[in-house]
Automatic annotation (TrEMBL):
It comes from the Eukaryota. InterPro entries: Glyco_trans_2-like, Nucleotide-diphossugar_trans. The lineage of its organism: Eukaryota, Metazoa, Chordata, Craniata, Vertebrata. This is Queuosine-tRNA galactosyltransferase isoform X1. Keywords: Glycosyltransferase, Transferase. Residues 1-15 have a biased composition (Basic and acidic residues). It comes from Parambassis ranga (Indian glassy fish).
Length: 384
């Protein structure tokens, strides 16, 4: 067991991340160490908290109303909140326990929060569920969420399980929400390189503890680190699969204080390029970048020298770009500097990396791809 933080009166030590059927959990009660034995449960709801007091009532109400008939636990880790978040959760303990939940609440009172990844890992480490249901403190799970995702996980032990969502306020992030809810099961894999991030979005994740232990833990770099995308890519590298329950099981809240806003576009871009090169481009002898504009050229510049040599052309629909005939990579140290042809998409040869934003061309991009009878995941991948 790890040593306790004397500042906290409701602190539990870290326990074995792969719990036996029964766990011995140490707590501090009245300043004295107490030890209790807890049985493993079917599902632990993993909830990191940081200054979420204004949303916790709705969030905990959603948890309380789950229709799952197995055993459940709520594991909360408070990441140095300066509001009354921990007290709000404590105020719900009796109602949750009366409903049959085990409740574990801990946290730290450091001057600075240590980040979402850290808080998630701590909430998992103090929990004992065979399955983990990740819940953000500002979102609301609908009554059937745990039941339906648990059923899906039983059949998919090495998977991240997601669901469809309803975004609030209504109309916020409209394109992103449509993307979350309408990807096909195949596209959960093929569109893993797009700028939207994980195709199974983190606030909807549900998985076996066994799979979390194989993939995890979350990166604890703190603010600005996309711990969800890093875990998502690591899961795929480990051979994990993805699945979405095609029912709306979560109300997914949009607000300016969300942790995702602290992650820079350049950080996400680099991770995506590296993953694309590793998983796709390493398997191709040559390819065409679909977009001779800013985004296509940026992708080319970010490729490894080996993969740059595989780019046979850029293709586009813009006659002005096509008439120039080629793109010169001015920053190259090669002499002469590389010149990559720019051609019309109908004259280009696949496979393609598509650097045109989805759902932004009024269906023209999709029509052009269909006209060439290309198959996503074989003949092309989306990168934007």
């Amino acid at each position: 067991m790890s040593s306790k933080d004397s500042e906290s009166q409701d602190r539990r030590s870290e326990v074995d991340m792969n719990p036996p059927k029964r766990l011995r959990i140490e707590t501090l009660i009245g300043g004295e160490k107490q030890e209790a034995e807890r049985s493993a449960v079917d599902v632990s709801i993993i909830m990191p908290v940081h200054n979420a007091s204004c949303w916790l009532g709705e969030c905990l109400q959603g948890i309380l109303h789950q229709d799952f008939t197995g055993s459940m636990e709520l594991s909360v880790f408070d990441d140095a909140s300066t509001d009354d978040s921990r007290e709000v959760v404590q105020g719900w303990r009796d109602r949750l326990e009366a409903r049959g939940f085990s409740v574990v609440i801990s946290g730290h009172n450091s001057a600075q929060p240590r980040g979402v990844g850290y808080a998630k890992n701590k909430a998992v480490s103090q929990s004992c569920g065979q399955y983990l249901c990740f819940q953000d403190a500002d979102d609301i799970m609908l009554p059937q969420r745990v039941r339906l995702q648990y059923d899906a996980s039983l059949l998919r032990q090495n998977s991240l399980i997601g669901c469809q969502v309803r975004r609030v306020p209504e109309g916020s992030t409209e394109r992103y929400t449509r993307w979350i809810n309408t990807l096909t099961q195949d596209q959960l894999i093929t569109q893993a390189y797009t700028s939207h991030g994980p195709t199974v979005v983190m606030p909807t994740w549900f998985c076996s503890r066994k799979w979390y232990l194989k993939v995890g833990p979350f990166d604890e770099g703190g603010k600005g680190v996309p711990e969800d995308l890093l875990f998502f890519y690591r899961s795929l590298r480990q051979g994990g699969s993805l699945f979405r329950v095609d029912e709306c099981l979560l109300v997914y809240r949009y607000h300016e204080k969300a942790a995702t806003h602290s992650v820079t576009e350049e950080t996400i871009w680099k991770l995506r390029v590296d993953f694309l090169q590793e998983r796709v481009l390493s398997q191709w002898e040559s390819f065409t970048i679909w977009n001779a504009g800013k985004q296509g050229r940026k992708l080319y510049r970010c490729l490894s020298p080996t993969n740059q040599t595989k780019v046979r052309a850029f293709c586009d629909v813009d006659e002005n770009k096509i008439q120039k005939g080629f793109y010169t990579y001015e920053e190259s140290k090669q002499r002469p500097k590389p010149k990559i042809p720019v051609v019309h998409y109908k004259d280009a040869s696949g496979p393609f990396i598509i650097c045109v934003k989805l759902d932004m061309t009024g269906g023209v991009l999709e029509e052009n791809l269909n006209s060439l009878q290309l198959k996503e995941g074989a003949d092309y991948y989306h990168f934007n």
